[in-house]
Write a structure and sequence with these properties.
This protein has about 400 residues and is an alpha+beta fold. The chain folds into two domains: about 180 residues, no CATH class; about 210 residues, no CATH class. The protein contains ten helices and 13 strands. The strands form four sheets. A five-stranded mixed sheet has the order 7-6-10-11-9. A four-stranded antiparallel sheet has the order 4-12-1-13. Strands 2-3 form a two-stranded antiparallel ribbon.
Length: about 400
């Protein structure tokens, strides 16, 4: 009986209209799923410590002209009031201060127990939340006498391609930082102490020799108790690196930024916007395709109004009359979903191979969120279609009565 009803109702079905819906819906669904999946796949690059879309941090210091700070009588350091003023700016999310060692530091460095060179150096620390390296070993205890140290990644390049090459020394990769041995001698306040330094990683964000804040506080208290600990540099996490208020504030207060981090932040911010824009376009195309489907079904029902009314008059229920249209829409939505996942899998294999070439250590994201989104869209759209067709048939049924 259902087959007879379907043969009767399908006479006015427009293949062109349904094909238009099908391909528009397929294109829109594919873009939405691709946008979400691409974001999930590259998310490790966004969130990992050395990722290129990590939160934007700016290193701020006071501008220096010649041998003195601009403005007579001004200090190179940031007072508590100045730090508070920066933290209260609308563009600022958080602020951290660099704390420098105020005593003499002499360090000899070697590889596998063989001393290579020694030099005077200094230490700095920032709050742990600003450190872009694994923090499981980022602890100091005066009892074990081991200082965790994070070096700038540029130092590794300078050693490998400058010092090591000229001195015929072995080159060191980041994976074998444990080979680097340090003997650190601290002198100040009439005291001297020898400690062991251990390089636990390299930083891209901070161009300084980092040690834990707990070590800086302990060592400054012991070797330079009278020293002025006013910070000369600040690390500022900003909400939007493209905000013009940042540049205005920096210029108005005679400050300067380290490197070109603000320009890099603008690039990463616009990349995020592009990702969001692509997903919005895909969603818009999907919504328009859903509208095309609803319009096609409504026109089809309108053309078959007389036939539907006759079927209802001879005893067919609204549910049975609505079912062919509902199955048609649900079936098309299901085919669109399957083809979208198939295309997504093919495109994903292609771009993941390219990403693995550029970032061999990256891990791909999960496909479960994308699968859930696709199935969720299928369920929601199908339910809307079913209810819409049912309501349209019920209007014809009510007019009959």
């Amino acid at each position: 009986m259902m087959l007879l009803v379907w043969k009767l109702l399908r006479q006015h079905i427009s293949i062109a209209q349904l094909a238009g819906f099908f391909f528009a819906n397929l294109f829109g669904m594919f873009i939405v799923l691709l946008g979400l999946q691409f974001y999930n796949d590259v998310k490790p690059l966004f969130s990992q410590d050395d990722g290129f879309l990590k939160p934007e941090y700016l290193i701020v210091s006071k501008r220096i002209s010649g041998m003195s700070v601009l403005g007579a009588g001004e200090s190179c350091g940031f007072s508590d009031k100045e730090v508070e003023d920066i933290s209260n700016q609308p563009f600022c999310k958080s602020v951290g201060a660099f704390t420098a060692s105020q005593y003499r530091v002499v360090c000899s460095m070697g590889v596998n127990g063989v001393a290579q060179f020694g030099t005077d150096m200094f230490f700095e620390s920032v709050p742990d939340r600003f450190v872009d390296t694994e923090l499981s070993k980022w602890r100091f205890s005066s009892e074990d006498g081991i200082i965790p140290i994070i070096l700038p990644r540029t130092y590794l390049a300078i050693y490998n391609f400058g010092f090591a090459q000229s001195q015929s020394l072995p080159k060191i990769s980041e994976g074998i930082v444990g080979m680097i041995d340090m003997l650190v001698v601290l002198r100040g306040n009439g005291q001297e102490q020898r400690l062991k330094g251990k390089v636990i990683g390299f930083s891209t964000r901070l161009n300084t020799i980092l040690v834990p804040e707990s070590f800086i506080k302990w060592s400054n208290t012991k070797f330079a108790p009278e020293a002025d600990l006013t910070p000369n540099r600040l690390i500022v996490e900003v909400k939007n690196p493209t905000d013009d208020a940042i540049v205005k504030y920096i210029n108005d207060h005679n400050l300067e930024l380290e490197d070109d981090k603000l320009d890099a932040g603008k690039a990463t911010y616009f990349l995020k916007l592009v990702t969001i824009l692509v997903m919005c376009i895909g969603m818009l195309i999907s919504i328009l395709s859903f509208y095309i489907l609803m319009l096609s079904i409504y026109l089809l029902v309108q053309k078959n109004t007389e036939k539907l009314r006759n079927l209802l008059l001879i005893g067919y229920s609204p549910v049975r009359v609505s079912l062919p249209y509902q199955l048609l829409t649900v079936g098309m939505n299901g085919v669109v979903l399957i083809l979208s996942f198939t295309l997504l899998y093919m495109v994903r294999c292609y771009y993941m191979n390219m990403l693995w070439v550029m970032f061999p250590q990256m891990q791909d994201g999960s496909m479960w969120p994308t699968l859930c989104l696709g199935i969720g869209l299928f369920i929601v759209v199908s339910l809307i279609n079913i209810v819409a067709v049912r309501n349209r048939v019920m209007k014809i049924w009510n007019r009959k009565e």
